[in-house]
Amino acid sequence: MKHARLLAASAALLAAGGTAAMAADVKVGSAAGITGPIEGLVPPILAGRDLAAAHVNEQGGILGGSNYVLVPGDSQCNPKAAVDAGTKLVNVEQVVAIIGPSCSGATNGMVQSVNIPAGVVTLSDTATAPMISYLEDNDLVFRAAPSDGYQSAALAQHVYDRGLRKIAVTYANDDYNAGLGEAFIAAFEHVGGTITGKQAHEPDRQSYRSELSTLAGGGAEALAVFAYYGSSGITILRNSLENALFDQFLGADGMMDNSVIDQLGADTLRGKVTLSQPAPAAEGDSGPDESYAAFAEAFKATGNDPEAPFVSHGYDVSFLMALAIEKAGAADRGMISAALREVANAPGMVIRPGEWAKAREAIAGGEDINYEGASGAIEFDENGDVAGATYTFNGVGDDGTWTPMQ
Fold this sequence. Notes:
Blueprint: H1 2-22, E1 26-32, H2 42-58, E2 68-74, H3 79-92, E3 98-99, H4 104-118, E4 122-124, E5 141-143, H5 148-161, E6 166-172, H6 175-190, E7 194-201, H7 209-216, E8 222-226, H8 229-242, E9 249-251, H9 258-264, H10 266-269, E10 273-278, H11 287-301, H12 311-328, H13 336-344, E11 349-351, H14 356-364, E12 369-373, E13 376-377, E14 391-396, E15 402-404
Parallel strand pairs: 1-2, 1-3, 3-4, 4-5, 6-7, 6-8, 8-9, 9-10, 11-12
Antiparallel strand pairs: 10-14, 12-13, 14-15
């Protein structure tokens, strides 16, 4: 009888242990530039990621009821810091995959030094440098934001159509800005424009007056500034304006922050600056536009702006990673890459933001699913890239904020 009781107790403990294992958290790294040159842009992106995780957990959780947990890591928009953050997430926190990190240089550093060697899938919402397409990554690096090869071409065509023919270019010496700057140069020359001079610059200097004076001597009609607003971007604009070196500027999403306007003044910048960024999908009745509408409504309910840069991409990478883990059927690093393509690419039952319960049921029933994202249709090509987006071109509006230009 005593032996029987011991067996029964052991069985109960095993059953309890099995239940605990089933309910264990499924941890995914959420790496981002929480501090660093774009720290003002990051909180809304993280809010987008968190909203997706909330939708998963509110609708039954992942892998039979486990919590989907995003473990933060501060990549600081810096390759070295990103390697440190990735090492902790992969080796200490034992995350099954990583979303992020912010910035192309940080992404490149983290994936090459940590994630690829460890066999950990990375899905970025903001890494847009063209060179990421050509990493030898064993199909482990994906991104929901399009390559800046598309953005540079769109910006070049836009400013050429506005009548600008001669442009000087300065870009920060990092993967994102250097890649974007060189791609813009090629695109602008392709449409018939002339680059009067170009210079790479180091970030975080107190003055760029000497370099800007050299660039201004080439007869340019505008200066293209490819930099993060929090490192060199604001300083370059200030130096140019205070010394009457340039009075027309263009740039990309790395400059899209209200601190640029706050520090330099709306009246000073109005009519002088054009910044490109991927356009939020428009609301509509079907397709990806319907997906954006679903996301926008839910995101507004959290007190956030759905049109902030890359917030829809943030939602998408978080939701997509959960779908891939559910499709894989286990928190197994080695199974996520193939599953990610299966849940993102057509054909399959269309799943939109917030439709976690619908997706779980379809996956459990053996149906193929096709996630149509808040940021647009997400179809990964052989490089783990998505197709080009549409872009908005923003200037300082009458209300003193960045506003899409007509």
